[in-house]
Specification:
This protein is mainly α and 163 residues long. The chain has seven helices and no strands.
Length: 163
């Protein structure tokens, strides 16, 4: 996989949305931080380049449904009738967006499962070991960024209280 090509395809998709919208900009930056985190997780697991690149692609796509969610609802809070992980797999696999990122279908199943499960309370049962691996990598990389953001918010709030 060509990481530059993947990034270019993602940027093209996101540029269809209003990059002046702080929510869109936040999710765009969050996505690339999750990609960086996924690389670090893969390195810590001693995964090979092919595995690391697939994990990177999954991280790049994990919140693809969030952009539409913000456009429709002006929020990232899940609605009863909208789940961004489920919507992400709809965009990617029912609407065919995945082919803007990769041409072949070899990795469709782990991508589908990881994007679908990244925001669920737990990963669905009966997955193969490799499928669970990619689900866990993106879930961990995502949570690492969320934790980092909470820490930054706490630091800012504490600094404001000290001033």
């Amino acid at each position: 996989m060509d990481i530059a090509k993947l990034n270019s395809a993602f940027d093209s998709y996101v540029n269809e949305y209003d990059m002046n919208d702080n929510n869109i900009l936040y999710k765009y930056n969050h996505t690339y931080r999750v990609c960086k985190n996924s690389k670090n997780v893969c390195k810590s697991l001693n995964l090979n380049e092919e595995q690391s690149n697939l994990a990177y692609l999954i991280a790049l796509l994990h919140d693809i449904g969030r952009f539409y969610q913000n456009k429709m609802y002006k929020t990232f809070f899940e609605k009863a009738d909208f789940d961004h992980g489920d919507y992400g797999v709809k965009l990617l696999f029912e609407d065919g967006l995945i082919r803007k990122f990769i041409d072949n279908t070899d990795n469709d199943k782990p991508i589908y499962l990881a994007v679908k499960n990244h925001n669920k309370y737990s990963v669905e049962n009966n997955l193969k070991e490799e499928e669970i691996l990619y689900c866990n990598i993106v879930r961990d990389a995502d949570k690492l960024d969320i934790i980092d953001n909470f820490i930054e918010i706490i630091k800012i709030n504490n600094k404001e209280e000290d001033d």
